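Journal club side-thread
Mid-discussion, someone asked how the predicted structure for our own chain would compare to the paper's figures. Pasting it here so we can look after the session.
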Amino acid sequence: MTSVFIEASALFRAYTREPGSDVMDDIFSTMESRRIKGLISQFSVPEIIRGIIKRKNLKELDNNEAQKIIDSILLDINTRVLNDELQILALKEEYLSEVSQLIRSSNFFVIDAVQLVTAYHATPAFFLHADNHFKGRETGKKTVMIDIRNPDAKEKVR
């Protein structure tokens, strides 16, 4: 089965209405029909929760709204994992030297390097993201990276 790695910034757009959300709607629909399998890092969910807490701290969400959103996301992700639509990948200890090398060679943030290296080893068809930190970066690997916010993202994913 074809797999796609969904970086946290792209995954977040499955639960919000922002540029790229329509692409994630298509990805989730394709996962539900068992035509692809979604892959995420074990750090994606905490990173999304941090984004929601940040919005709460900025007073964009109140406490109850933030908690409801977090609960909804956790339920959805757990359901997708149980339905074998989504797989959560762990960072293996043997990947740490690659993470360090990627940080040194391309100045990636730690979480971005972790997600890239985790994806490399899973060999997905695509690495989906919505994060400017990935634009124009040399990764040294042959991973097809797609910014889901780009107008041609839907076509590339098809």
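Post-session note: The longest helix spans residues 63-82.
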